[in-house]
Amino acid sequence: MQRLSFLVGSALFSLSAAQAAGDIAAGKAVFDRINCASCHGADAKTSIDPSYPQLAGQHPDYLAHALKAYRRGQSNAAPSANIRKNAIMGAFAVQLSDKDIEDVAAYLSSLPGNLAVRK
Fold first, then answer.
1. Is the pLDDT score of 36 beyond 70?
2. Smallest Cα–Cα separation from 64: which of 112, 5, 30, 105?
């Protein structure tokens, strides 16, 4: 009985994790619609300016957090609301729903990137 409970619990956890991951194909569509490539490169790692971050291979939760912070910054939220102020990124972020953000984060994190943990 304990084993069955464990298996059911594991299956439910896996299902919820998969749903929370976002839709990669829909994320690619968001990336294209918002024209992220114009600054971050078609591969999301060859930015037009070296100060712009590489997005390919980045952690999806970091990407989602950053986009939501840009969106809050554009809405004139209080600085204590964890905002990011950038006119360009804010203008793009306000166009995105939470689902769009989840999807584009899933897409970008699925791309091969040059990001690595240094030892």
1. yes
2. 105
